[in-house]
Amino acid sequence: MDKLIISGNSKINGSINVHGSKNAALPILVASLLSDQNLTLSNIPKVDDINNMQKLLKGFGSKIKINKNSITINNRNIKNISADYDIVRKMRASVLILGPLLARFGYSKISLPGGCAIGTRPIDIHLEGLSKLGATFKIENGFVIGNVNNRLKGSIIKLPFPSVGATENILMASTLAEGQTIIKQAAMEPEIEDLGKCLISMGAKIEGLGTKKIIVEGVKSLREAKHNIISDRIVAGTYIILAIMLNSKFHVKNFNTNHLLSVINILRKMNCNLKVKKNSVRIFPSSNLKSAKVTTKPYPGFPTDLQAQLMALMCIVDGNSQIQETVFENRFMHVPELNRLGAKIKLLKDIAYIKGGQQFKGAQVMASDLRASVSLVLAALCAEGQTVINRVYHLDRGYEKVEKGIGILGPKIKRIKI
C-alpha cells in the first residue's frame, strides 16, 4: 500500500488537461460485451479502476489491443464464465456486467461486487429492473446468477430513485431486448449520456438521453464503432478547488464546463474568481472567500463526488458552512482525517457543520475512499508542514498518479512504495 508525502504551503502553476472520465469509461468498456464487433475507445483514463475492468474483461476472453491514443476491444470469442472475485471485490462497477451478458447470452454469474465503503449501495434496484425485462436471479454462495429464457423483452421500468448504475445496466440490456423499453426516473448524469451515445454509434436506438425518461427500441445485434470518452468532470472540479485553496492563477482545460455548472455556481457564491469558457475554467487568486450551504443531489444537482473536496475548501474560508449529504449515507469518512489536519467539523446525522478560517497543519492521515483521499491531498497541499497520506490505492482508482500530474505543476508530492 503506497503512501504520499506532501509538503504544504504549495503553489500551483500553469495549466492541466483533464483526463477521461472513469465513471463514463467503465460502463462503456462493459458495453463492448454486447457485440462481437470491434469497439475502439479514445480518451481512456490511466487509473486503477479502468485497469481492473480491462483485467475483468480479459478474464472473459476479451481481446484488448492498446493503440497509441486508444484501445480496441473485441468480444467475438468470449467465454461466459463467472466474473473473477478478486477483481469484482475491488470495484462496484463490475455489477454492470450483468445486463450485457444477460442480453447477449441469456446467462450471467458474478460475485457480489465491492468498491468504496461509502454506503450500502444495494444492487437490488439493478436486479429488479433487469427482472422486468424477463431475467430471473438467485444469490448463491456469494454470487449473483441470472438467467433469461430466449431473449429479454422490453418493458416499462420506473426506478425508485435515479440510480446511475441501475440506469446504465438497464439501458445496456434493453438495447438487445425485444420491443420497446422505457426507463422512467432515469439518472441524467453526463456519463450516462456518453454511454448512450456510444451505444447509438454501435447501432442502438435510444431517445431521451439526459432526461428522466429514456426510450430504447431493441435491435438484434450491434455493430463496429468508435467513441471518444468525455473528460472527467469530477477531476476537473477537484483541480479547480485545488487552485482556489492554493490561491493560485491556474487553467483547467479539456472538459465540458456545462457538466459542472452546479459546482461553478456554488464556487461563485463563495466569491471564487473564475473565468468560465465552454471547455475550460481559469482560476485567479481570490480574496474574502465566504461560506456556503450545500446539499448533494443527483445530477444536475451538486455532485456527491465533489463533497469532500468542497468541504476541504470550506475549512479555510471565512464563516461557517454546512453540507448535507443526501446521496450516500456513509460519505463523511474524511471528516475525522480532515480534523486531524486541523479542521473543525462536526457531524449531525447527514449534515456536516464546518467552521471556517482554519489553518491546516501537516499530520499522518488515512485515506478511506476515492474522493476522501483527494480531499486530504488538497488539505495537505495548503497545510503548514508535511503530511503523510496512507493507503492511497483508493486515490489511484480515479485519479491518474497525482505526483506526476499535480506534482509537476509546482506542489511537492512524493510517493513511497511499501
Provide key terms for this protein.
418 residues, alpha+beta, UDP-n-acetylglucosamine1-carboxyvinyl-transferase, Chain, four-stranded mixed beta sheet, 24% strand, globular
What is this structure, in a nutshell?
The protein has 418 residues and is of the alpha+beta class. Helix content is 29%, strand content 24%.
Explain what you see.
The protein is of the alpha+beta class and 418 residues long. The chain has 2 domains: 3-19 and 231-416, Enolpyruvate transferase domain (UDP-n-acetylglucosamine1-carboxyvinyl-transferase, Chain, Alpha-beta prism); 22-228, Enolpyruvate transferase domain (UDP-n-acetylglucosamine1-carboxyvinyl-transferase, Chain, Alpha-beta prism), CATH 3.65.10. 29% of the residues lie in helices and 24% in strands. The chain is built from 14 helices and 23 strands. The protein has helices spanning 22-31, 48-59, 85-88, 98-105, 124-132, 164-174, 190-201, 233-245, 261-269, 307-314, 335-340, 370-381, 393-396, 402-405, and strands spanning 3-7, 15-17, 39-42, 63-66, 70-74, 107-111, 135-140, 143-148, 156-158, 180-184, 205-207, 213-217, 225-228, 250-253, 273-276, 280-284, 293-295, 320-324, 345-348, 351-355, 364-366, 386-390, 413-416. The strands form 6 sheets. Strands 21-22-1-23 form a 4-stranded mixed beta sheet. The chain is globular and about 65 Å long. Mean pLDDT is 93; it is low at 115-121.
Q: How are the SSEs ordered, and which strands pair?
A:
Elements: E1 3-7, E2 15-17, H1 22-31, E3 39-42, H2 48-59, E4 63-66, E5 70-74, H3 85-88, H4 98-105, E6 107-111, H5 124-132, E7 135-140, E8 143-148, E9 156-158, H6 164-174, E10 180-184, H7 190-201, E11 205-207, E12 213-217, E13 225-228, H8 233-245, E14 250-253, H9 261-269, E15 273-276, E16 280-284, E17 293-295, H10 307-314, E18 320-324, H11 335-340, E19 345-348, E20 351-355, E21 364-366, H12 370-381, E22 386-390, H13 393-396, H14 402-405, E23 413-416
Parallel strand pairs: 2-14, 3-13, 9-10, 17-18, 21-22
Antiparallel strand pairs: 1-22, 1-23, 3-5, 4-5, 6-8, 7-8, 10-12, 11-12, 14-16, 15-16, 18-20, 19-20
